[in-house]
Amino acid sequence: MKYEIVIPVITFVCVIAVGVPLLISREQKRKLLEKRLREGTGFKTGGETKQQKTTFVQLLEKIGNFVSHGQATTTLWEQLIRAGYLNSAAPAVYTGIKILLFIIGVVGGTTLIMPLKIYFMTKVTLVFVGATVLFFIPNIVSKKTS
Asked: How far apart are CA 63 and CA 135, in angstroms?
């Protein structure tokens, strides 16, 4: 008879213990995003304007625009906004970084793996696995900062 009330009470306490921190965390993230939007900051690393862009960032932007044809998905915009990158060039720079890391992975992997004495297809697979890992680093970093 006593146990009939214990299970619902424990369930209620568990739901509250898990749900309240989740709701508080979500509200804090929402407030932080609203604050960032009100302030209108650009990149986290300095809020630079078009005139202050370095040639490297311009190169990344050109690569990103070339690959994505100047179009960014809504999902990418949302992900970058959550991470605090509000600059209009952020999606192009993000895409440019991904492409550059992939190329670095292919070239670096080829340089390191081709001299090894293993099957050719294994070498090719290892090179592309390494390049793919580098390609997804921006995804991981942007998820961590959001």
From this structure: 14
End-to-end CA distance of the chain: 48
Residue 113 contacts residue 92 (beta carbons within 8 Å): no
Is 58 in contact with 90 (CB distance < 8 Å)? no
Q: Is 74 helix (H, G, I), strand (E, B) or coil?
A: helix
Residues, the chain: 146
Q: What is the pLDDT of residues 2-24, one digit of tens each?
A: 667 777 777 777 777 777 777 77
Give the residue among 111, 109, 104 at the shortest CA–CA distance from 135: 104
Q: For residue range 26-45, what is the model confidence (pLDDT) as tens digits?
A: 777 777 777 766 666 544 44
The residue extents of the domains of the chain are: 40-145
Cα distances from 99 to residues 67, 84, 88, 137, 138, in angstroms, run 8, 21, 19, 11, 10
Q: What is the pLDDT of residues 52-101, one digit of tens each?
A: 567 888 878 887 878 777 777 777 777 777 777 777 778 888 888 888 88
Cβ proximity of 39 and 32 under 8 Å: no
